[in-house]
C-alpha cells in the first residue's frame, strides 16, 4: 500500500494505492460525505478488486485532507476528483482501463464524472437516491446518466432509498442500512462477481 498526494484546483487530495498482482484495470473509489476511506464497504470492495487483478486508489477529497467534515459543493468535488483521475492515470495507471466508484456521496461523484473521466464502469456503494424522508428530492438523474456498466450495492433498509435496475445497471440488495456493514461479505461477493463480468468484457 502506498499513499500519494495529488494537487487539485481546491487543494491537495490524497490517494491510498492498493496494487494487485495483475494489472487488468484500475478502480478509483471515493468516500462518503462525512466518512473516510476506512469505511467497511470500501475496504471490502478494495479487497475484492485487488483479488480480481484490479489496482485500487482510495481517494480522499481535499476537504477531508484539510480536516473539514462538511463536504465541498458538488462542482468542487467533481473537479477535484477529475484532477486525481488525470494525475493517477498518468503516474500510476497508464494504459489501464479506469473504473470509478465510491460510497454514498462518492458514488454520486463517480456517476457525475464517469463520462468526462472516460470511466469504463461505475461501482456505487449505498447510492443516496434521496435525502431521508424526502423522496421528492431525487438524485436518480445522476445514476441514470451513467452510460457504462454500473453496479449498485444497496442496503435493504437504507433510508436514502432504493434504485431500480435499468439498462447497464445492476442492483444488489443486501441486509442492512446505508452503512452496508451488516453484510460486508455480501459486498465482497457482489463486487467480485460484477468485476469479473466487466473484466471479461474488457478482455474480449
UniProtKB/TrEMBL annotation:
Signal peptide: none annotated. Residues 24-184 form the KANL3/Tex30 alpha/beta hydrolase-like domain. It comes from the Bacteria. InterPro entries: AB_hydrolase_fold (IPR029058), KANL3/Tex30_Abhydrolase (IPR046879), NSL3/Tex30 (IPR026555). This is KANL3/Tex30 alpha/beta hydrolase-like domain-containing protein.
Amino acid at each position: 500500500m502506498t499513499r500519494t498526494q495529488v494537487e487539485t484546483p481546491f487543494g491537495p487530495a490524497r490517494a491510498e494505492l492498493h496494487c494487485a498482482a495483475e494489472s487488468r484495470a484500475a478502480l478509483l473509489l471515493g468516500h462518503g460525505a462525512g466518512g473516510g476511506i476506512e469505511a467497511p464497504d470500501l475496504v471490502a470492495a478494495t479487497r475484492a478488486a485487488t483479488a480480481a487483478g484490479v489496482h485500487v486508489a482510495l481517494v480522499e477529497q481535499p476537504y477531508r485532507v484539510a480536516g473539514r467534515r462538511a463536504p465541498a459543493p458538488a462542482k468542487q468535488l467533481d473537479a477535484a476528483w477529475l484532477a486525481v483521475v488525470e494525475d493517477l492515470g498518468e503516474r500510476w495507471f497508464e494504459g489501464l482501463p479506469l473504473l470509478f466508484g465510491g460510497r454514498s456521496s462518492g458514488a454520486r461523484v463517480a456517476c457525475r464524472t464517469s463520462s468526462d473521466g472516460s470511466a469504463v464502469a461505475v461501482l456505487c456503494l449505498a447510492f443516496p437516491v434521496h435525502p431521508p424522508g424526502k423522496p421528492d428530492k431525487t438524485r436518480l438523474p445522476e445514476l441514470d446518466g451513467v452510460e457504462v456498466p454500473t453496479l449498485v450495492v444497496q442496503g435493504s433498509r437504507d433510508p436514502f432509498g432504493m434504485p431500480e435496475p435499468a439498462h447497464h445497471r445492476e442492483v444488489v440488495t443486501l441486509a442492512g442500512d446505508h452503512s452496508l456493514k451488516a453484510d460486508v461479505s455480501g459486498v465482497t461477493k457482489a463486487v467480485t462477481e460484477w468485476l469479473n463480468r466487466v473484466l471479461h468484457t474488457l478482455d474480449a
